[in-house]
Amino acid sequence: MRLDNKTAIITGGASGMGRAEAEAFAKEGANVVIADLNQEAAEEAAEAIRSAGGKALAVKTDVTNEQDLRNLVETTIAEHGQIDVLVNNAGIFDKYATSLETTENQWDFIFNINVKSVFNLTNLVLPGMIERGNGAMVNIASVAGLVAGKGGAAYTSSKHAIIGYTKHLAASYGKDGIKINAICPGTISTPLIADSLKDIPADAIPVKRFGEADEVAELATFLASDEAKFMQGAAVPIDGGFTIQ
After folding, report:
1. Furthest-apart CA pair in the chain: how many Å?
2. pLDDT (tens digit, 9 = 90+) per residue, 119-137?
3. Residue 1 to residues 8, 26, 102, 226, 227, Cα–Cα distance (Å)
4. CA distances from residue 51 to 7, 18, 23, 26, 222 in whole angstroms, order as listed
5. Is 155 considered catalytic here?
6. What is the per-residue DSSP string for 167-224?
7. Between 153-173 and 117-132, two packed helices, what is the crossing angle to 10 degrees?
8. 224, 39, 59, 238: which is closest to 143 by C-alpha?
9. Does the pTM exceed 0.70?
10. Nearest-5° angle of CA 87, CA 185, CA 126?
11. How far, in Å, CA of 114 to CA of 102, rounded?
């Protein structure tokens, strides 16, 4: 199995792409740690994985709370000894709010979840990976980080920031044996954007459909595995061809 005995933290792992990633990682042999603010949903997701024969632990985590992030890392290390893979998946959408429609509080809220939490958790996990000389990080960005017309002002800016941060990390820590890449999903049918899907024309996508969470999860599994050992600092679109137009 591609992730046999590796320990992976997945933020926002209780639903949507995060849950699909947790399930995919567990099928590949990983010890999955589901970090989510919704403890009940995280426990349910972990139990479903365990019932299917996988290994999973749920840790209630507010990614904007630094103490929660420290607890997540400490709990994972206490349970499994180390952290081999980090998937920074937790994020929030701004429903296409333009700059003039975005308040400063809304801007800060989006950036605290989508960017600052990634910075804080990454810095907690990096030292152990550097010490061991190996590790993998997968940051969930968006096609809104590649083109300007696929999200609101704050969301688009936050996902551009994640791609830039991913490239910085790869350039800085690739020499330490750490593989760091980003995934840029297009329109994926998840609860996060369920209210917005009715307003998004699938005809604008070359394959004429929305993506599924398990398709993103398969890409995340590949990037976390040794099969992607020569990939570094990539921002990989999975968008049905949206960004080729």
Report:
1. 50
2. 999 999 999 999 999 999 9
3. 14, 10, 45, 11, 11
4. 18, 18, 11, 11, 24
5. yes
6. HHHHHHHGGGTEEEEEEEE-SB--GGGHHHHTTS-GGGSTTSS-B-HHHHHHHHHHHH
7. 10
8. 238
9. yes
10. 20
11. 16
Q: How many CA atoms lie within 13 Å of 237's alpha carbon, on the beta-carbon side?
A: 16
Closest CA to 55 of 28, 35, 89: 28
- Identify the residue whose tokens are 């590649």: 146
Rounded to whole angstroms, the Cα distance separating 166 from 211 reads 23
CA distance 212 to 194: 12
Helix, coil or strand: residue 82: coil
Q: Where are the alpha helices (DSSP H) in 112-183?
A: 117-132, 153-173
Q: What does the chain come to in residues?
A: 245
What domains are defined for the chain? 7-244 (3.40.50.720)
pLDDT 10s digits, 81-95: 999 999 999 999 998
Q: The tokens of 1 are what? A: 């199995």
Residue-level pLDDT, tens digit, the chain, 245 residues? 999 999 999 999 999 999 999 999 999 999 999 999 999 999 999 999 999 999 999 999 999 999 999 999 999 999 999 999 999 999 999 988 999 999 999 999 999 999 999 999 999 999 999 999 999 999 999 999 999 876 799 999 999 999 999 999 999 999 999 999 999 999 998 876 666 676 777 888 999 999 999 999 999 999 999 999 999 999 999 999 999 98
Find the catalytic residue in 96, 155, 165, 173. Answer: 155
